[in-house]
Amino acid sequence: MRKIEQMEKKIAVFIPCYNASRTIGATLESVEASVRHLGSPVPVYIYDDCSKDDSLTVARNHWSNSNELKIVKNSMNLGERLTTNNALKSFREKYDWVLIIHADDIVKQDWLSELYKLIGQADDKKYFTIWSSFDSLDDITGKVVEGDNTGNVSDRDRTYGEKKQYLIKLYGNWHISGAAINLSLFQELGGFDITMPQFGDTDFFVRGLMRGFRDVYLSRTLTFYRVIVNSVSSVSVRSNRDFKEVLYILDKFRDILDQRERLQLRRNLRSLAFRRACRRLLRLDMGNFFFCAKVILRSL
Asked: Are residues 49 and 121 in the same domain?
């Protein structure tokens, strides 16, 4: 274990949890290994959103240093976005930055140490998030699809048009799991939009950029994004929730997007809905097929 220079900024790790008994063990083992690799104690918080399984028992059994692991239970189910907003608001009193990992993802050994260095170098009045690339891990087959791993660090200020493109292409690269967030600027931005479980990450990232804050991107795959059946993204696809959120985004950012950009976002939505409608039809899932057809019509 290597000892790194202690910095003045205070950091913590935050893990939102809901019915994650099957995955949280591997998540915590990876986080604890990353803490050991850092060589400096870091408090790790689990916020449990009224799990109905034995997630917390599994969590305790997969963590060896009880002094570093802190567990908070919601009194009622609030959803991940509101749970995160509440947690990060309370953290502001004790910490400057928080590193977030979901209870179904895995961090690599150098996750903490690499982001720790970049946090120490960041101007807290300018930078609202520091993030990296990730590998996608299929939970069933074990197949890994590698992400951007060139090792470059980018912190350039994007143009106004480039900032909006993160919104228009829908599935942006930035997402909350694996990222570090500046708690002061998080509160200034009003946290996450709790109405968007799927595209809340994109919404938050774009709002930060549009406010003039900057981000640091490390092109290193510091985490594994675990693709599982009951993930937020998988549930969103099955329930067509992502379509509803895109229509909401179109209305929410109406004054920011020009006519050409709104048309581009509608085209992206229409293309996504058409592909999904074809899959629904092949499966004779007529209810969802007709829903997709309605989305196509609304996007014209």
From this structure: yes
Claim to verify: residue 239 and residue 264 sit in the same structural domain: yes
Does a structural domain hold residue 1? no
Contacts of 74 (CB under 8 A, 6+ apart): 47, 48, 49, 50, 83
Q: How far is CA 249 from the centre of its chain?
A: 18
User: pLDDT at residue 248 above 50?
Assistant: yes
**CA–CA separation, 23 and 227 (whole Å):** 11
Q: Are the beta carbons of 242 and 199 closer than 8 angstroms? A: yes
**Is 39 within 8 Å of 2 (Cβ atoms)?**
yes
127-138 and 144-145 as β-strands: parallel, antiparallel, unpaired?
Answer: antiparallel
CB atoms within 10 A of CB 34: 27
Given a cut of 90, whether residue 204 has pLDDT beyond it is yes
In order of 74, 202, 246, 299, the CA distances from 295 in angstroms are: 36, 21, 10, 6
